[in-house]
Write a structure and sequence with these properties.
Helix content is 47%, strand content 11%. The protein is an alpha/beta fold. The chain folds into 3 domains: 206 residues, 3-Layer(aba) Sandwich (Rossmann fold); 182 residues, Rossmann fold; 40 residues, Phosphoglucose isomerase, C-terminal domain (Orthogonal Bundle), CATH 1.10.1390. A 6-stranded mixed beta sheet has the order 1-2-13-12-10-11, sandwiched between helices. Strands 6-5-7-8-9 form a 5-stranded parallel beta sheet, sandwiched between helices. α8 runs antiparallel to α16. The structure holds glucose-6-phosphate.
């Protein structure tokens, strides 16, 4: 079914009219009038509680937004994704990260073939490999057990496993340490290698295409480092390097034995790939059983997403509320605020997941949008951000919807730390909602300062409470955001699963790289770029 023009849908027009009413309402007043707002606008799912009551919504808003979802044929789009239809139309690919964590193991067909046997075979290969590394069956060139895993990858082949491995620090197997090198800046690689012993270091080259310049450059540097430390014995490479890729030929050409290659498929998008063998560094660090718990948590969220009516469906609600702010309040950004040190990479991870998926300006049919699509996603862990950018969220001129995320139970329950963290998280959402009126500003405040000390409030927030950050609950949390992004993409009528802007970036540098290395004048560029290339060549090279 083709996506109808969003702005012509009946619910869109009604939401525009409704916005004129709601924009005048203050959350403080809504809470005064509705003492059961928390009960009505919060939902629990397994280990997660979503409180969306501090949003600028009424029952009518939610009714209209869920109608918008129905009019956008969201149910049909969900079915298409889960049943392997080629919804990534510009690349003619299915989108099946949900199959990677399909723990019920029911068949998922792509072009008449069930993908589950292939997925299960790679999971088994990962299991055998991680066990062999952990029990010492596989060892480094001098016979010592591996202690350090270095994942070399970038973008989707880095951010997911890096974020998850960092978030699950309390589950790290004793004696195993994970490192992630992504940037082609040599400092990234050297800072990592300088800490490591080549005899006990295992490298994972993670690249869907196995052609990405940064990853290949880093992989060759790591290879040479190892050779330099083992008397240039090429035979050791196969013991210290494994690859995760869809490109068997390129893996072979690099010199990695295809027995040491973990396969994945073109229907796994890079930013959705942590559930595939791209998750190998996760499995090596926390163990395969915990990796499967991560998959279980995501699968449970998949089932919830697929089966729950829109009005009680966590990803759908979060997506619709996001659309409400983006398209009607004209909010340009969304901030992610995890109150958990181990979730410190979540904002960067979601930045890619969301901005690469929904940073699009044409519909699936190639027509220019006459409405806004994905917002800027950013954030930092709390409480650190409170001492920095929260000022603008409280008192700046724009409205920035915020997601606050916090586990109730800490893995490091020392003294009062966690109570202080939790109190700050809850206090911020309350303050953003209520604000502080001129009447509430202290009586002895000079008139000239009152306006400076007034907080407008009415700043919307979601709060996600997680009982405890475990592989399972983290899996559910990530899948929640993945599906939120999907729903928004469906309503905007865009392809959330291609990334032509990223592809362009991969090609652009090639020409200038050659020019920087040559003595002949720079080729055809604008005057600024030519000037910069010439300056670099004269001063640095
Ligand atoms: C993800 C993007 C992008 C990609 C990297 C790495 O969805 O396409 O971030 O993951 O560019 O690509 P390779 O895995 O092919 O090296």
């Amino acid at each position: 079914m083709s996506t109808p023009q969003l702005t012509t849908l009946p619910a869109w027009g009604k939401l525009q009219d409704h916005y004129q009413q709601v924009k005048k309402l203050h959350l403080r007043d809504l809470f005064d009038q509705e003492s059961d707002r928390f009960d009505r606008y919060s939902l629990q799912f397994n280990e997660l509680l979503l409180d969306y009551s501090k949003n600028r919504i009424t029952d009518e808003t939610l009714k209209l937004l869920t109608t918008l979802a129905s009019e956008s044929h969201l149910d049909d789009a969900i079915r298409k994704m889960f049943t392997g239809e080629k919804i990534n139309t510009t690349e003619q690919r299915a989108v099946l990260h949900v199959a990677l964590r399909n723990r019920s193991n029911t068949p998922v067909m792509v072009e008449g073939n069930d993908v589950m046997p292939g997925i299960n075979a790679v999971l088994e290969q990962m299991q055998n490999f991680t066990e062999a590394v952990h029990d010492g069956t596989l060892r480094g060139f001098s016979g010592k057990k591996f202690t350090d895993i270095v994942n070399i990858g970038i973008g989707g082949s880095d951010l997911g496993p890096h974020m998850v491995t960092t978030a699950l620090r309390p589950y790290w197997i004793e004696g195993m340490h994970a490192h992630f090198v992504s940037n082609v800046d040599g400092s990234d690689m050297m800072e990592t290698l300088n800490k490591l012993n080549p005899e006990t270091t295992l490298f994972i080259i993670a690249s869907k295409t196995f052609t990405t310049r940064e990853t290949m450059t880093n992989a060759h540097t790591a290879r040479q480092w190892l050779l330099d430390h083992c008397g240039n014995n090429e035979g050791v490479i196969k013991h210290h390097f494994v690859a995760v890729s869809t490109n068997t030929a390129a893996v072979k050409a690099f010199g990695i034995d295809t027995d040491n290659m973990f396969e994945f498929w073109d229907w796994v998008g890079g930013r959705y790939s942590l559930w595939s063998a791209i998750g190998l560094p996760i499995a090596l660090t926390i163990g395969m059983e915990n990796f499967k718990q991560l998959l279980n948590g995501a699968h449970e969220m998949d089932l919830h997403f697929r089966e729950t009516p829109f009005e009680n469906n966590l990803p759908v609600l979060m997506a619709l509320i996001g659309i409400w702010y983006r398209n009607f309040f004209a909010a340009t950004s969304q901030v992610i605020l995890p109150y958990d040190h181990t979730l410190r990479l979540l904002p960067a991870y979601l930045q890619q997941a969301d901005m690469e998926s929904n940073g699009k300006r044409v519909t699936i049919a190639g027509e220019y949008l006459d409405y806004d699509s994905g917002p800027v996603i950013w954030g930092q862990p709390g409480t650190n951000g409170q001492h920095a950018f929260y000022q603008l969220i409280h008192q700046g001129t724009q409205m920035i919807p915020a997601d606050f995320i916090i586990p109730l139970e800490s893995h490091n329950p020392i003294g009062e730390h966690h109570t202080i963290l939790l109190a700050n998280c809850l206090a911020q959402t309350e303050a953003l909602m209520k604000g502080k009126t001129a009447a509430e500003v202290a009586q002895d405040t000079p008139d000239s300062l009152v306006a400076h000390k007034v907080f407008p409030g009415n700043k919307p927030t979601n709060t996600i409470l997680i009982n405890k950050l475990t592989p399972q609950s983290l899996g559910s949390l990530i899948a929640l955001y993945e599906h939120k992004i999907f729903v928004q993409g469906v309503i905007w009528g865009i392809n959330s699963f291609d990334q032509w802007g990223v592809e362009l970036g991969k090609q652009l540098a090639g020409v200038i790289e050659k020019e920087l290395e040559s003595d002949t004048p720079a080729g055809k560029h604008d005057n600024s770029t030519t000037g910069l290339i010439d300056y670099c060549r004269q001063h640095l090279l």
